[in-house]
């Protein structure tokens, strides 16, 4: 069975203000393999890569509160009866015994007996590990062109995905179909401990537990009420036998989909997929009984705890629509009247006018239920919940009464169309849309037809929808300051499970070496031809690129000055996004943009200040003229400075309550001292002293700084240049850029541990820093790329295997040797490591990290995979059409004259273990390590921690402003 959906359908459906011409890359061909597996193929030759994914319509709702769907996803990386083993028949005897022990554990309540069973599982796992080839699946992905390997579990589905070089399509299909046929649950005990670490990480995220409580209250009795990861109690009692039943029920051909988008020919790929993926077990999608949600009865009140004082938060939640519901498109427009891209919505206006601090419409559609809601943050200190709610409900009532103009309605339809089109314009975003559509039970045609649904909507439709869903029956959630107890698990005390065959190959891996590799056609950035480069003024360069995909333009102006040079830029970006002009209020100015289908936003980063504009080509001139009006006549509004101050206050409160942010701030201070980006910013008290005109003056100054302008669209380059010259004041640009700014790294003479005590955290965040050597030649840059892959930058790296895979001491662990910009050949590099672990494992994890940094294991066999990983990343990094000129200008600023990926690929293949060890010896070995730790001192062995260096206790207020 085959169904071909042509892009012409989509083009013919667009009407009104947007007649987008869409390219052939939007064709999606839908097939069924002989076993009933759905296949969606999308050819796009704009980038030399393929995004490949398998979608399984099975998620946490299918195993409520057990976590099976999630930890099954983890186990899918452990291999099969053919992948990841040197002798499966012998290994299976031990694995069967382990599975039996887990069944026994699940029904055992006596704690002493449970510990004995777990000890026996540990002993069996160690014995079975002598047959295991760890990470073989990951290594094979890397060997055959893969990068960005990952997976994810949601309420409704599980998705496995990566991108790969097109010449390896045969190997990718063989490997990923084999993966789904007979997965083996090896190394389960250590992986389950990693899942505990993941759960701890989520629990430490500010507000995560509160969201779980809201979901439980809103969705009960539906399985969406339970967390995806599962409860701590259920995670303590896993059963491999139940996981096997889950696989047999849901991992069948009729319940799965294969998604490919990228550089291939469908007619050539389909026979390959039939040969490989048709081997997957045939079966129909299981029938599901959807649990109905009862309507709310009046206003049902609920309170949650969030550990931020002073700040209030109010959530109003109504029953919404599931995905694929006939009201979905109309409801999206209704929500756009409340919040939209141009901040012209009724709730946006409340925040912009300072009547409340923030208010956002929420619209979430899962496969079996939906949420429509509003999240509101009242003004700090003095605004009551009832006062804020009254304002919000008034705006919702306006929508219900039809109190919005035809102009607003039509502009929102235009905005929706623009967003639909942009979702389809490159491989990554289109593939993500394909994944979500398939998992929701929609077809590609359904998505394309949604544009016609937008066109057909009337104002009356929106009013009916608003009244249908915004009823008097809803859940009202109020925040109070506090913390939920955390179900922390003590470290198990098991012996680490360390397989003995890290460098071995399975028979399957040897057989894969016989599969034919197609011809490679890599692409690299062409600094001269991927974009026209035009010097429109002495210090203004235009990069112009054509857009063959659609008729949406983007215009990005990047001024060569960032937050490392000016502390005013960050609050200035916030402020500018709230302003109008001398002749137009904020509402009027943004409405004019929205009526054109255009957007304007400002952003400040370390090394640039960006102005981002988008819209339809036909309205390019009108849009640029509006932007010019803002540039020349932005009007300061003193009252809106309070919103800038309030945002800064919220930022500070959020950092205080986030272990990750505290660790990042502490690590940045250790690396750069007073030049830390967290310290090199204005404090709340300093922002309070600013006047709006101060920020307008800074905006006028930034417009004089050397800049690059990036246009991507279909307007003739001459016209673009003419509009820039007429409107954007390029003649006044006369200040040379000093970016990229290279901060001086701090050097330490003795090993030290900087420590922030965080009594509420479940995990410790551990960072390590070494000031490396001066890397002033190209060969060291190739060596650093190889070192990163080998040591700490991939799933096959030394750190990942030794800390996560073998010892379960972290969910996330990574180390990167960071180089200064290419032009700064006299500057030092630096090694930066980061990991998170349960607090009582802190010193264990640090011990392994410390030993690996001080004495890197040297394994010649591992080099091949590390080399290929570097090559894959370089091959798969060729940017999408809107990103090409941005990447080119970034590389030129760094000091390059051509794409460095081309040189990396040409040179990395010549490096061997001696080159790697030499780089390590020169830049890492025997250099002083400085550690940072953010964690709960009561759960950390502080005496043992002091063995890693003198402990210097730091207060959180000293690492950020």
UniProtKB/TrEMBL annotation:
<dbReference type="GO" id="GO:0046872">
    <property type="term" value="F:metal ion binding"/>
</dbReference>
<keyword id="KW-0862">Zinc</keyword>
<dbReference type="Pfam" id="PF00675">
    <property type="entry name" value="Peptidase_M16"/>
</dbReference>
<keyword id="KW-0732">Signal</keyword>
<protein>
    <submittedName>
        <fullName>Predicted Zn-dependent peptidase</fullName>
    </submittedName>
</protein>
<comment type="similarity">
    <text>Belongs to the peptidase M16 family.</text>
</comment>
<dbReference type="GO" id="GO:0006508">
    <property type="term" value="P:proteolysis"/>
</dbReference>
<feature type="domain" description="Peptidase M16 N-terminal">
    <location>
        <begin position="40"/>
        <end position="84"/>
    </location>
</feature>
<dbReference type="Pfam" id="PF05193">
    <property type="entry name" value="Peptidase_M16_C"/>
</dbReference>
<dbReference type="InterPro" id="IPR011765">
    <property type="entry name" value="Pept_M16_N"/>
</dbReference>
<keyword id="KW-0175">Coiled coil</keyword>
<feature type="domain" description="Peptidase M16 C-terminal">
    <location>
        <begin position="711"/>
        <end position="817"/>
    </location>
</feature>
<keyword id="KW-0645">Protease</keyword>
<dbReference type="InterPro" id="IPR007863">
    <property type="entry name" value="Peptidase_M16_C"/>
</dbReference>
<feature type="coiled-coil region">
    <location>
        <begin position="95"/>
        <end position="127"/>
    </location>
</feature>
<dbReference type="GO" id="GO:0008237">
    <property type="term" value="F:metallopeptidase activity"/>
</dbReference>
<feature type="domain" description="Peptidase M16 C-terminal">
    <location>
        <begin position="241"/>
        <end position="413"/>
    </location>
</feature>
<keyword id="KW-0378">Hydrolase</keyword>
<keyword id="KW-0482">Metalloprotease</keyword>
<feature type="signal peptide">
    <location>
        <begin position="1"/>
        <end position="20"/>
    </location>
</feature>
<dbReference type="InterPro" id="IPR011249">
    <property type="entry name" value="Metalloenz_LuxS/M16"/>
</dbReference>
<dbReference type="InterPro" id="IPR050626">
    <property type="entry name" value="Peptidase_M16"/>
</dbReference>
């Amino acid at each position: 069975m085959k169904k071909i959906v042509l892009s012409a359908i989509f083009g013919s459906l667009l009407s009104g203000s947007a007649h987008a011409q869409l390219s052939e890359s939007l064709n999606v061909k839908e097939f069924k393999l002989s076993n009933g597996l759905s296949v969606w193929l999308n050819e796009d030759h704009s980038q030399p890569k393929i995004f490949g994914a398998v979608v399984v319509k099975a998620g946490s709702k299918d195993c409520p509160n057990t976590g099976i769907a999630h930890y099954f996803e983890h186990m899918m990386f452990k291999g099969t009866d053919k992948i990841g083993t040197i002798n499966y028949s012998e290994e299976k005897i031990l694995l069967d015994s382990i599975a039996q022990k887990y069944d026994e554990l699940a029904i055992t309540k006596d704690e002493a007996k449970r510990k004995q069973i777990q000890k026996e599982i540990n002993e069996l796992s160690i014995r079975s590990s002598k047959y295991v080839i760890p990470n073989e699946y990951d290594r094979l992905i890397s060997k055959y062109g893969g990068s960005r390997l990952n997976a994810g579990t949601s309420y409704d589905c599980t998705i496995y995905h990566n991108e790969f070089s097109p010449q390896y399509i045969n190997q990718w299909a063989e490997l990923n179909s084999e993966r789904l046929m007979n997965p083996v649950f090896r190394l389960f005990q250590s992986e389950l401990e990693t899942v505990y670490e993941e759960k701890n990480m989520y629990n430490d995220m500010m507000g995560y537990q509160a969201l779980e409580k809201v979901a439980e209250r809103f969705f009960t009795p539906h399985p969406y009420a339970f967390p995806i990861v599962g409860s701590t109690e259920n995670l303590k009692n896993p059963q491999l036998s139940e996981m096997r039943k889950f696989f047999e029920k849901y991992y069948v051909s009729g319940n799965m989909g294969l998604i490919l988008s990228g550089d291939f020919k469908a007619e050539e790929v389909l026979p390959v997929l039939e040969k490989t993926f048709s081997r997957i077990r045939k079966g129909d999608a299981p029938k599901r009984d959807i649990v109905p949600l009862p309507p709310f009865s009046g206003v049902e009140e609920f309170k949650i705890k969030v550990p931020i004082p002073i700040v209030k938060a109010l959530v109003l939640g109504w029953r919404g629509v599931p995905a694929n519901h006939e009201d979905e498109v109309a409801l999206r427009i209704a929500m756009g009247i409340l919040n939209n891209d141009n901040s012209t919505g009724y709730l946006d206006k409340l925040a912009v006018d300072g009547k409340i601090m923030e208010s956002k419409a929420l619209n979430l559609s899962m496969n079996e239920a939906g949420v429509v809601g509003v999240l509101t943050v009242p003004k700090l200190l003095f605004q009551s919940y009832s006062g804020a709610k009254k304002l919000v409900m008034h705006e919702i009532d306006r929508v219900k009464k039809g109190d919005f103009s035809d102009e607003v309605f039509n502009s929102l339809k235009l905005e929706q169309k623009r967003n639909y089109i942009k979702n389809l314009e490159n491989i990554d975003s289109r593939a993500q849309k394909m994944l979500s559509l398939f998992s929701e039970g929609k077809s590609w045609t359904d998505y394309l037809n949604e544009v016609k649904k937008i066109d057909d909507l009337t104002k009356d439709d929106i009013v009916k929808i608003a009244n249908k869903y915004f009823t008097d029956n809803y859940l009202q959630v109020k925040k109070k300051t506090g913390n939920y107890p955390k179900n922390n698990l003590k470290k198990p005390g098991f012996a680490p499970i360390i397989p003995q065959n890290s460098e071995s190959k399975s028979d399957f891996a040897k057989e894969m070496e016989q599969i034919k590799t197609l011809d490679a056609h890599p692409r690299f950035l062409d600094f001269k031809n991927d974009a026209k480069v035009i010097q429109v003024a002495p210090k203004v360069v235009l990069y112009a690129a054509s857009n063959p995909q659609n008729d949406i333009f983007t215009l990005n102006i990047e001024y060569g000055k960032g937050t490392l040079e000016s502390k005013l830029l960050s609050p200035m970006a916030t402020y500018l996004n709230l302003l109008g002009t001398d002749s137009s209020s904020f509402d009027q100015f943004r409405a004019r943009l929205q009526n054109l289908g255009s957007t304007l936003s400002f952003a400040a980063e370390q090394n640039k200040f960006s102005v981002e504009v988008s819209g339809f080509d036909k309205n390019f001139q009108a849009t640029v003229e509006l932007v010019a009006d803002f540039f020349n006549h932005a009007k300061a509004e003193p009252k809106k400075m309070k919103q800038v101050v309030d945002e800064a206050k919220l930022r500070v409160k959020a950092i205080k309550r986030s272990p990750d942010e505290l660790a990042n701030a502490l690590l940045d201070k250790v690396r750069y001292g007073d030049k830390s980006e967290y310290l090199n910013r204005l404090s709340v008290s300093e922002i309070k002293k600013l006047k709006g005109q101060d920020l307008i003056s800074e905006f006028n100054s930034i417009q004089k700084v050397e800049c690059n302008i990036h246009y991507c669209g279909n307007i003739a380059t001459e016209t673009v240049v003419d509009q820039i010259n007429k409107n954007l004041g390029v003649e006044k640009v006369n200040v040379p850029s000093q970016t990229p700014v290279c901060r001086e790294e701090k050097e330490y003479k003795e090993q030290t541990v900087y420590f922030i005590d965080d009594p509420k955290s479940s995990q410790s965040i551990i960072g390590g820093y070494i000031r490396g050597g001066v890397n002033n030649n190209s060969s060291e840059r190739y060596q650093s790329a190889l070192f990163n892959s080998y040591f700490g930058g991939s799933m096959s790296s030394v750190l990942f295997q030794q800390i996560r895979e073998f010892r379960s001491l972290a969910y996330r662990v990574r180390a990167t040797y960071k180089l200064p910009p290419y032009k700064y050949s006299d500057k030092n590099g630096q090694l930066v490591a980061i990991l998170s672990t349960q607090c009582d494992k802190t010193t264990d994890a640090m011990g392994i990290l410390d030993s690996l940094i001080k004495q890197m294991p040297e394994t010649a066999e591992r080099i091949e995979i590390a080399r290929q990983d570097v090559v894959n990343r370089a091959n798969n990094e060729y940017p999408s059409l809107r990103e090409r000129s941005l990447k080119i200008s970034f590389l030129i600023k760094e000091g390059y004259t051509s794409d460095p990926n081309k040189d990396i690929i040409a040179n990395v293949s010549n490096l061997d273990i001696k080159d790697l060890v030499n780089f390590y010896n020169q830049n890492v070995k025997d250099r002083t390590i400085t550690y940072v730790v953010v964690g709960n001192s009561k759960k950390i062995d502080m005496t043992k921690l002091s063995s890693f260096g003198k402990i210097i206790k730091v207060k959180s207020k000293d690492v950020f402003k």
